[in-house]
Amino acid sequence: MTTAHKGCLECGKLWNDRKPGREFCCSSCRLAFNNRRMKRGAEMYDLFRAMRRERDQAKLLGLWAEMCRLELRWQQEDDAQRPGRRSYMPPRKALTNLRETGRLPIGDVVAKSYRAGR
Fold first, then answer.
1. Once rounded to an integer, what is the mean pLDDT over residues 31-55?
2. Residue with more model confidence, 117 or 67
3. How many Cβ atoms sit within 10 Å of the Cβ of residue 10?
4. Alpha-carbon distances, residue 89 vs 34, 41, 73, 98, 108 (angstroms)
5. Helix (H, G, I), strand (E, B) or coil at 14
6. Comparison of pLDDT for 63 and 4, the residue scoring more
7. Can you spell out the DSSP letters for 21-77?
8. Which residues have C-beta within 8 Å of that of residue 14, sequence separation ≥ 6?
9. Helix %, strand %, coil % of the chain (to 5)
10. Once rounded to an integer, what is the mean pLDDT over residues 65-73?
11. Distance between CA atoms of 23 and 17, rounded to whole angstroms?
12. What value does the mean pLDDT take over residues 95-115?
């Protein structure tokens, strides 16, 4: 588990607490951080969709285990290149962002509503 870091999540530059909630020292660090998240997300996207939509084939191929190995590799890269700093959005913040932008159905049961439309 990564502990709270008092500095830029990308370069590690430390700062004082004048601006609470601050995560990056400059826009180039924010951009590098977000680009890494987007690249990794694109790699995970097809694997996750296949796991959800072609479950039998995904199970045969051990897709979940491969997704876990991929995430472990990313964590090892982060530990080597950016020790002590997370490379992902905290769960509460990720869900809040999705809900606030309307990209996450609030309270809908996705599987039930999908199957009902078949």
1. 93
2. 67
3. 21
4. 10, 12, 18, 12, 23
5. strand
6. 63
7. T---SSHHHHHHHHHHHHHHHHHHHHHHHHHHHSHHHHHHHTHHHHHHHHHHHHHHH
8. 6, 7
9. 60, 0, 40
10. 96
11. 11
12. 70
